[in-house]
Amino acid sequence: MTSIEVAGVQVDTRHYIGGQRIASAETFTNTSPIDGSFLGEFARGGKTEVDLAVEAARKAFPAWRDLGAKKRGELLENLARLIEENVETLAQIETLDNGALLRSHRRGVMPRAAMNIRFFAEWAQNELKHEDFETRGHTNKVSWDPSGVAALITPWNAPLMLATWKIGPALAAGDTVVLKPAEWTPMSASFFADLTKQAGIPDGVFNVVFGYGAEAGAPLTAHPGIARVSFTGSVPTAKLIAHAAADNLTPVSFELGGKSPLLVFEDADLDLAAHLAVEQYDNAGQVCLSGTRILVHEAVADEFAAKFAEKVAAVKQGDPRDEATDIGPQVHQKHFERIRGFVDRAKAEGADIVWGGEPNDELGGLYFKPTLVKNPRPGSEIVTAEIFGPVLCMQTFKDDDEALEMANGTEFGLAAVVVSGNREHAEKVTKNLVAGTIWVNCFFVRDLRAPFGGSKKSGIGRDGGTWSFDFYADVKNTVFAPTGWKE
Ligand code: NAD
Predict the structure, then answer these.
(1) Which of 205, 229, 367, 418 satisfies CB 3.0 to 4.6 Å to 360 for a cystine?
(2) Which ligand 1 atom minimizes the distance to the CA of 235?
(3) Does the pLDDT value for residue 109 go beyond 90?
């Protein structure tokens, strides 16, 4: 079987290489986290398919580069429109595949995927203009030139949306692309590949190879024919990719994990703080940015905890296709067991589990209850490691210095949430927080022109706005003298 019917459309289970669908001798099984049901057998790519895809992308590169930014922008605009027209289909496909809420996919995630493509399409339609600089009558003309083939490796927690952060700027900059989506969630990338064809993006400009990280991801990142590696995923995988890319000195961009703090200060609006705390359970905790370490000023800790408990009691766990559901299942049995392992080990250490701490037996399957661990042992894994599930910790601090020491006290630096009612205080604190993104009295809002990425082990480089082009394009400075012209 080469395709499966999902949400009333056919989703091809083969790679998309050079505009053609290509099967592999072997396949891997894709199931739905909602109920374990079988979704399809997808082509299991390896070095052979990666070589084919890189070759197709290299072949397509000169014409795509020479098409010019404006024309590329028009084709990407078509693609953005097609995503918008297919929001419902994409939302259903993604929810079946990764178990995240259908209503979020419909109203937030898929429209945002279209916006990501449109944002970079607009830059391209404006011919990717960069600022020029004048010095002693000489013009320094700065350009973003296409760099070649971009290898994109993506995770399963927001598969298509995260891929479009990379695909948009790479294609707009004039690079061609080989995408390797996560093996637990291949479906949206396959349907998206069909949309690129409908949008008029030439064959070979966008390619998808399915398969496992070690089999398809590893040869892609080590390939001498690629110009860039952009990876979103975990720190251990990033280390493997850094080694693989080192041989060819291929530039890498890494968006990695986090263990972000959510700081509730004495002067905070505690209702708002409780609201923001509950949001950290979104997508069943499978959000890199989640503020999983709640740090509360000791003077307001009890009042905050009571308000938080009240809000958590109203959270409904269930089928992610149900409009009333707030939290769905974990993505995969292996990931579910990993989360359970963290919680069980914390329990064995005597951790204080305030709520949750176990699978939701009423629902069965991959549903793990929203969990709160109070006052974990400092330095224990539950408070230092990224769990990537609905497991939050709560600790108290006595003053700003201690809050900052705790907040900055992990190997990560992806994000932070600050809740404070005093602007001066909030500004002082944010200055000393080490994080790529800090939200003050809010969460999850970002202008696409602003940078996104992590400090410390949470990443290398930044996505968004000009930062994306600085990575995907070759930045060139051509200096024109005022003299020497014959005309
Ligand atoms: P992962 O590192 O296990 O896998 C990510 C991707 O890498 C998958 O496509 C996988 O097949 C591939 N891969 C695995 N081994 C590889 C190898 N040796 N060579 C090349 N590719 C390989 O991560 P995951 O479990 O899919 O995703 C969860 C992680 O992603 C978490 O750490 C989360 O914080 C992080 N994440 C970060 C961001 C961000 O923007 N910072 C966003 C979402 C997720």
Answers:
(1) 367
(2) 32
(3) yes
Strand-pairing partners, residue 208, are 16, 179
pLDDT of 487 > 90? The answer is: no
User: Is domain 3-256+458-477 given the CATH code 3.90.380.10 in the classification?
Assistant: no
- pLDDT tens, residue by residue, 58-98: 999 999 999 999 999 999 999 999 999 999 999 999 999 99
Type of residue found at 379: G
Coil, strand or helix: which one is 72?
helix
Say whether 288 is catalytic.
Answer: yes
How many Cα neighbours within 13 Å face the side chain of 346?
A: 32
Q: How far is CA 453 from the centre of its chain?
A: 10
d(CA 218, CA 200): 30
Q: Exposed/middle/buried for 304, CB within 10 Å: 0-12, 13-18, 19+?
A: buried
What whole-number distance in Å separates Cα of residue 119 and Cα of residue 29?
35
Average pLDDT, the chain: 97
Q: Could you confirm whether 393 is annotated as catalytic?
A: no
Q: Name the residue with the closest Cα to ligand 1, atom 9.
A: 182
What are all long-range contacts of 334-339, with beta carbons under 8 Å and residues at least 24 apart?
Answer: 335/286, 335/388, 335/389, 336/366, 336/368, 338/387, 338/388, 338/389, 339/285, 339/368, 339/387, 339/388, 339/389, 339/390, 339/391
Percent of the chain with pLDDT over 90: 100
Which residue out of 255, 266, 279, 386 is catalytically annotated?
A: 255
| Distance of alpha carbon 385 from alpha carbon 112, whole angstroms | 29
Domain edges within the chain? 3-256+458-477, 261-440
Residues whose CB is less than 8 angstroms from the CB of residue 483 and which lie 6 or more positions away in sequence, other chains included: none
Architecture per CATH, domain 261-440, reads as 3-Layer(aba) Sandwich (3.40)
Torsion, CA 56, CA 59, CA 65, CA 70, rounded to 10? -50
261-264/293-297 β-pairing:
parallel
- Euclidean distance between CA atoms 301 and 303, whole angstroms: 6
SS3 33: coil
CA distances from 418 to 262, 305, 401, 415, 422 (A): 6, 16, 14, 10, 11
């809420």: which residue's tokens? Answer: 101
Contact (Cβ atoms closer than 8 angstroms) between residue 396 and residue 295: yes
The structure tokens listed for 407 are 């907040």
Give Cα separations from 206 to 117, 176, 229, 381, 408 (angstroms). Answer: 14, 6, 15, 40, 40
- Bridge partners of 28, per DSSP, are 42
- Name residues contacting ligand 1 (CB within 6 A): 153-157, 162, 180, 182-183, 212-214, 217-218, 221, 232-234, 237, 240-241, 255-258, 288, 386, 388, 414, 454, 459
Q: By CB neighbour count within 10 A (0-12 exposed, 13-18 middle, 19+ buried), where does 111 fall?
A: middle
